[in-house]
Design goal:
With 456 residues, this protein is of the alpha/beta class. The chain contains 14 helices and 21 strands. A 10-stranded mixed sheet has the order 9-7-5-2-10-1-11-16-20-21, with helices on both faces. Strands 15, 17, 18 and 19 form a 4-stranded mixed sheet that branches. Inosinic acid binds next to α4. Its main location: cytoplasm.
Length: 456
């Protein structure tokens, strides 16, 4: 069977931990979208692994697949594999030949376009994600499989690179260097192709995954980023360029929707909200210079709110895994979660980080929005309308700081009662049962109520 793990907010919900938790029962873990923009931290045997491309299941000795829906930077891929090897692991990673390759000019153009866009900039990770997906859709991309065939690689580069060079130089007026040099790119990427071939790393992902399922193996489909930054269902244009929602799990893995749909789809929810990047955020607390629209930081915000935001940011370690940028934080946004639950059809929830909110007198939740005098229970389709939504809050009594390691050992009933009330409110509103509750960063600090692979 398959279990699909989907971020239900803005990314950084703790998906890596959930993949890691249920990954024991999985034989293969496949990513279906995104690239090295996806910072995930996995804690295993007391060691912390920070990954951005390699599926987090690979840390636990599972076969890790980068599906056709991914965009792959071979340089990052090999760096991460080499680092894991140096730390004594032997990751088995396969890359879909249909996945698209991130080239150096994609990264350069990502940076240039972000600067040009000003207010419309998404605050990207500048890893070249958007420009690579653009080329995929524009039918001028270079797939991983093309790196294995030098003639095809050269032909593709000769077509596309002059266009990219003209874009950078003539449209944006920038100087270009070796990132736009056909010969340099050809030599470098041909070498990557050789290493991929030597290590037997490329695969026809859909066929491989279906064969494994037919043999009775368990497959986990690991989403990156989150629903509200999905290219179709997110807060466009402040989004990433792929589909983190469960539909992406079919298209981006090569498995049919009937196969993925027979399995489970687990929505990962963080007990509050955090975001790296720009755009509106109705339940935001305080703000972050350069990310919160119109935020100046000099007295514009409410002091109590700023203090609360700093508390949550520090307690939750809300600084980007990849970039180290402080993240914007806010209360849980229920319209955002209802939208996510519908778009992906969650069959279960994993709610993380309730420990971060411990010690507060009161915990608020954006239950609905008020928009032009009406109550909205889900997100409006345009970001402009979303930006005009005012959150209407519900208040919950806070829960105390406790020994979360003990709570994790004792199980769900040991969670402070007020925190359980909060969790059950979320599950009721989303119409999906709680499968797991994260009470700390470690694997053993997650309380498991249900293992989706047990019900096969
Ligand atoms: P890109 O994916 O680098 O193009 O960035 C587009 C938007 O998605 C930006 O707002 C990023 O901050 C956000 N983003 C990309 N990857 C992640 C992630 O793994 N977690 C959270 N936000 C992300």
């Amino acid at each position: 069977m398959t279990v699909t793990i989907v971020g239900s907010q803005l990314g950084d919900e703790g998906k890596g931990g959930v993949v890691d938790l249920y990954g024991d029962a999985a034989d293969v873990v496949a990513r279906y979208q995104g690239g090295d923009n996806a910072g995930h931290t996995v804690v295993y045997d007391g060691d912390k692994y920070k990954l951005s491309l390699v599926p987090s299941g690979a840390v636990r000795g599972k076969v890790g697949i980068l599906g056709n829906g991914c965009v792959v930077n071979p340089e990052t891929l090999f760096e991460e594999i080499d680092t894991l090897r140096e730390r004594g692991l032997d990751p088995d990673i396969r890359v879909a030949e249909r996945a698209h390759t991130i080239l150096p000019y994609h990264r350069v153009l990502d940076g240039i376009e972000e600067d040009e866009k000003e207010d419309l900039a998404a605050g990207t990770t500048k890893r070249g994600i958007g420009p690579t997906y653009e080329d995929k859709m524009g039918r001028r991309g270079i797939r991983i499989g093309d790196l294995l065939d030098p003639e095809v690689l050269r032909e593709r580069l000769e077509y596309v690179v002059p266009q990219k060079k003209a874009l950078a130089e003539d449209v944006f007026g920038k100087e270009t260097g070796e990132a736009f040099d056909i010969e340099h790119l050809y030599e470098t990427y041909k070498d990557y192709g050789e290493r991929l071939a030597e290590e037997g790393m490329t695969v026809d992902a859909g066929t491989y995954l279906q064969d494994r399922i037919d043999e009775g193996d368990n497959v986990m489909l690991e989403g990156a980023q989150g629903t509200s930054i999905d290219i179709d269902h997110g807060i466009y244009p402040y989004v990433t360029s792929s589909n983190p929602t469960a539909g992406g799990a079919c298209v981006g893995s090569g498995l049919g929707p009937t196969v993925v749909g027979q399995g489970e789809v687990i929505g990962v929810v963080k007990a509050y909200l955090s975001r790296v990047g720009t755009g509106p955020l109705p339940t935001e607390l305080g703000g972050v210079e350069g990310q919160t629209p119109e935020y100046t930081g000099d007295g514009a915000g409410d002091e109590d709110e700023e203090e609360l935001a700093t508390y949550i940011r520090d307690e939750g370690g809300e600084y980007g895994t990849v970039t180290g940028r402080p993240r914007r934080v806010g209360w849980l946004d229920m319209p955002m979660l209802r939208h996510a639950a519908r778009a992906s059809g969650f069959t279960g929830l994993a709610i993380n980080h309730i420990d971060v909110l411990a010690g507060l007198d009161e915990v608020e939740v954006g239950h609905a929005y008020e928009f032009e005098g009406e109550e909205l229970l889900t997100m409006p389709p345009t970001t402009e309308k979303w930006g005009r939504c005012e959150a209407t809050f519900r208040s919950f009594d806070g829960w105390p700081e406790v020994d979360w390691a003990d709570v994790a050992e004792d199980g769900y009933e040991a969670i402070p009662e007020n925190a359980r009330t909060y969790l059950e409110y979320v599950a009721d509103e989303l119409g999906a049962p709680i499968y797991a509750v994260g009470v700390g960063p470690g694997r053993e600090e997650t309380i498991v109520l249900e293992n989706p692979y047990d019900g096969e």
